[in-house]
Amino acid sequence: MTRLSLTLTPVIIIGVAIILAILNLATPATSALHVSDFVVGLAGKYLCYALLALAVDLVWGFAGILTLGHAAFFALGGYCMGMYLTREIGARGVYANANLPDFMIFIGWKQLPWYWHGFAWFPFAMVMVLVVPAILAAVFGFLAFRSRVSGVYLSIITQALTYALLLAFFRNDMGFGGNNGMTDFKDIIGFPLNRSSTTTALMVISAIFTAAAFLFARWLVGSRYGQVLVAVRDAESRTRFLGYRPEYYKLVIWVVSAVIAGIGGALYVPQVGIINPGEFAPANSIEAVIWVAVGGRGTLSGAILGAVLVNFGKTVLTGALPGAWLYALGGLFILVTLFMPRGIMGTFGRRAGAETSLPTAHEKQGLAAIDGKAADLAEAGADIGDGEKTA
């Protein structure tokens, strides 16, 4: 990746967000330049999807783990935020009960479950946004990678994970609102969610987190750790032979990506105004994989581009032909697979001299060092073998 593209991607994200904010807040509604709250909200939602796409690209593009369950971490982050926003409603609910959410009163609950305590405090909720997806990812990843589950089998169990959570959160006795989920949010840390200024602020915050996540991911995959991770992706057995523990490298990137997805979900909920078990749907995880494939696997900026473009197309097409979206999505994936297997950034970015998934000069040096180490070990093995034959 070039230094220019490293700087350009976050600059574009922040720049577009600032322009939208100015056109929304500083221009009259009658002006041709005015951007409506609806458009600002869509932009914020696309940025949250971009965070999920970044998370998927980290594990699929750089670790070779095709995940079909990352929507689970996105949804868990969203539920943590939803629990805070629900507690923030207080006595303004239908039943005017400051201690229990409306859905708990409706099903006859008399007291708040223990796992809801603390969510009335914003800092606690934000910590849970990070911790809950991380814990689930750590437990799942440790068991899966330690057992050396890989390939299509790992993809299947990631999808089974998110489907199991979907079924669990549908149950009323789980205490998360059942199939209706949580909605009717009023404000966030005192700012009414129905104000233009709050909508715009959430969109800008989403842009900042997306840019920061991109820079962090770029630093991570460009580090020594990232070089070994790519080696694990391309030749896991060989990397293990060199003395590395691939399962731990996979586990770290798996947990990091889960946290990024959880942050995306937490930012998503106050902007759409609802969280329900539908966010766990396996189809959502599959869509995220398609975003990355369209934008360019292993490019990071391509993941962001793919998430924005595909979801913009979804917004346009579902408004005109709601039933045609799934067919269009499937057709798009087939076309990309056949004619642009590297995605948009991997295909056109290379021609323009921009970011691609190919190793940089620094990465090539690291790979060369790994090759050198392998050659030394192979030569030592040959010497030992010759000595045994001589004896």
UniProtKB/TrEMBL annotation:
Annotated GO MF terms: branched-chain amino acid transmembrane transporter activity
InterPro entries to which the protein is assigned, alphabetical? ABC_transp_permease (IPR001851), ABC_transptr_urea_perm_UrtC (IPR017778), LivM-like (IPR043428)
Keyword annotations: Cell membrane, Membrane, Transmembrane, Transmembrane helix
Write out the transmembrane intervals: 6-26, 38-56, 62-82, 94-112, 118-145, 152-170, 201-221, 248-269, 289-312, 324-344
Topology of the protein relative to the lipid bilayer: Multi-pass membrane protein
Q: Which GO terms describe its cellular component?
A: plasma membrane
Q: Name one Pfam family in it.
A: BPD_transp_2
Subcellular localization(s) per the UniProt record: Cell membrane
What NCBIfam families does the entry give?
Answer: urea_trans_UrtC
For this protein, the record's PANTHER family field holds: HIGH-AFFINITY BRANCHED-CHAIN AMINO ACID TRANSPORT SYSTEM PERMEASE (PTHR30482), SLR1201 PROTEIN (PTHR30482:SF4)
Query: What name does UniProt use for this protein?
Result: Urea ABC transporter permease subunit UrtC
UniProt source species: Acidisoma cellulosilyticum
